[in-house]
Specification:
Elements: E1 3-7, H1 13-22, E2 26-30, H2 34-42, E3 46-47, H3 51-55, E4 60-63, H4 68-76, E5 90-93, H5 99-111, E6 115-118, E7 121-122, H6 124-130, E8 133-138, H7 141-151, E9 155-162, H8 166-194, H9 199-207, H10 214-218, H11 241-257, H12 263-280, H13 289-292
Parallel strand pairs: 1-2, 1-4, 2-3, 4-5, 5-6, 8-9
Antiparallel strand pairs: 7-8
Helix pairs in contact: 1-6, 4-5, 8-11, 8-12, 11-12
Bound molecules: nicotinamide-adenine-dinucleotide (NAD).
Length: 297
């Protein structure tokens, strides 16, 4: 069993940390939110009151933070991880951030003789709770091998996408596709319902036909069609519109930098931006259904 420091105990990090405890690891945690720390302590973790304290004696450091600026602050800040961690500690960042930020942290870590890997995840809060996340890793092959044994306690599929930053590139591509699939699914459901179809019947037909896709099959955006998805609990929990907008911003910036054409991703990004401007940033991303349909009808 290993000694692991975990930083960032939010919607994803909280259940991921809980799974490491269940697997028998010794866990020390740090978060700015006292409530998040309390929940982890109740599950069996030790709490630390600074980044220096949380990484002390750790063999692995795992971070699960909202965005690039938080990752930079946690790793590169004066009081940050790189200035406090012992030689030989393996650093794993599972946040979804720009590939360039992962590469910047990796470079700073390497300069100090430390190993760093980007390992963003797919699978949502449900996957984090069930321990079935997909980890999409970027870094050296031997570091990937070493990290895999720990990641297996939180995930089912562990991929090595390539060098530093490659995990983030693959994750950004995946989430851009997800945004396109979700908006397309909402549009099709809205059209069917306008024609008087039952959204549950239409969903079943499309699931068994060529329109079937992840958003429709396991994350149906129409309220009441599927149990245990955010659409059936007023779009609470899940993957926030604000986070999807962050990821689509990363895809857009990346496309500009690489002169790639992303017409579908750009349209999906504009729709999610519009939705957020209407005050929906704190809802699950499947609430984009509201942009196509008056769900009160
Ligand atoms: P969250 O906002 O629920 O949790 C982030 C946590 O980080 C919070 O508890 C916050 O207090 C803590 N934090 C922020 N700054 C900190 C700092 N300087 N030091 C210590 N703690 C700090 O976010 P989340 O939903 O858990 O997402 C985390 C990352 O995972 C994001 O990059 C997101 O894009 C990605 N992700 C989320 C989902 C999802 O379904 N929610 C799915 C896949 C990937």
């Amino acid at each position: 069993m290993s000694r692991i420091a975990f930083v960032g105990l939010g919607n994803m990090g909280g259940p991921m940390a809980a799974n490491l405890l269940k697997a028998g690891h010794e866990l020390t945690v740090y978060d700015l939110s006292a409530a998040a720390v309390d929940a982890a302590v109740k599950a069996g973790a030790e709490s630390a009151d600074s980044l220096a304290a949380v990484v002390s004696g750790a063999e692995y450091v795992i971070t699960m933070l909202p965005a690039g600026k938080h990752v930079e602050a946690v790793y590169l800040g004066d009081e940050g991880v790189l200035n406090a961690v012992a030689d030989g500690t393996l650093l794993i960042d599972s946040s979804t951030i720009a590939p360039e930020t992962s590469q910047k942290v990796a470079k700073a870590a390497t300069a100090k003789g430390l190993s760093f890997m980007d390992a963003p995840v797919s699978g949502g809060v449900g996957g984090a709770q069930a321990g079935t996340l997909t980890f999409i890793c970027g870094g050296e092959a031997d570091v990937f091998q070493r990290a895999s044994s720990i990641l297996r306690n939180m995930g089912k599929n562990i991929f090595h996408a390539g060098p530093h930053g490659a995990g983030q590139v693959a994750k950004i591509c995946n989430n851009m596709l997800l945004s396109i699939l979700m908006t397309g699914t909402c549009e099709a459901l809205a059209l069917g319902v306008k024609n008087g179809l039952d959204p549950a019947v239409l969903s079943e037909i499309m699931k068994q036909s060529s329109g079937g896709n992840w958003a429709l099959n396991v994350y149906n955006p129409w309220p009441g069609v599927m149990d245990n998805v955010p659409a059936s609990r007023n779009y609470q929990g899940g993957f926030l519109v604000d986070l999807m907008n962050k990821d689509l911003g990363l895809a857009f910036d990346n496309a500009v930098k690489n002169q790639a054409t992303i017409p579908m991703g750009s349209l999906a990004r504009n729709l999610f931006q519009l939705h957020a401007q209407q005050g929906k940033g704190g809802l699950d991303f499947s609430s984009i259904q509201q942009l196509f349909s008056n769900l009160e009808e």
